[in-house]
Amino acid sequence: MSAPYILVLYYSRHGATAEMARQIARGVELGGLEARLRTVPAVSTECEAVAPAIPDEGALYASLDDLKHCSGLALGSPTRFGNMAAALKYFLDGTSNLWLTGELVGKPAGVFTTTASLHGGQESTLLSMLLPLLHHGMLITGLPYSEAALLETRGGGTPYGASHYAGADGKRALDEHEITLCRALGQRLAQTALQLERGRG
């Protein structure tokens, strides 16, 4: 059996969500657990799948086993009209067997997103991502206001999860507050998972 890990599962088109995932993974490791970065393939309009089994670059594609065996989950997506991207929704729609067997019940989960505009649906996207996690019985770990960066941010950052304002061209780098909040979310997930493990022991 592998060591306990937090699954950092995301979809990224232009790299901003992937960078958030890397910062969250750093936070997970600061919190004392391994972070496992995984992504999902784009949804194809073709009748047959056209994506390679292994991506050309970046994280590997997630499997249901990655999700089944995780100690906690950070789920990330760019905003698509105030909702998560279709690729991530497609993956989640295929998790019925994990729901039927209750594999994710009681595990901590958090969410993160990026937007091209400052008020482009960050909060509604985060909330949309929480819905399937609640159906799976996961324990939602948002970001508390004890994180000072939540009160100081001029870009992303919400109590529902970490967020990033990427700009219209998608090239605005994560700022200091956004990085701090990403790492805080990862650390919170790891620490919560460890506390839950101790409680079961």
From TrEMBL:
Its cofactor is FMN. Gene3D superfamilies: 3.40.50.360. Its EC number is 1.6.5.2. It holds the Pfam family FMN_red. One of its GO terms (molecular function) is NAD(P)H dehydrogenase (quinone) activity. InterPro entries: Flavodoxin/NO_synth, Flavodoxin_CS, Flavoprotein-like_sf, Flavoprotein_WrbA-like, FMN_Rdtase-like_dom. Transmembrane segments: none annotated. Residues 6-190 form the Flavodoxin-like domain. PROSITE patterns: FLAVODOXIN, FLAVODOXIN_LIKE. Keywords: Flavoprotein, FMN, Oxidoreductase. NCBIfam families: flav_wrbA, PRK03767.1. Belongs to the WrbA family. This is NAD(P)H:quinone oxidoreductase. It comes from Zestomonas insulae. The gene is wrbA.
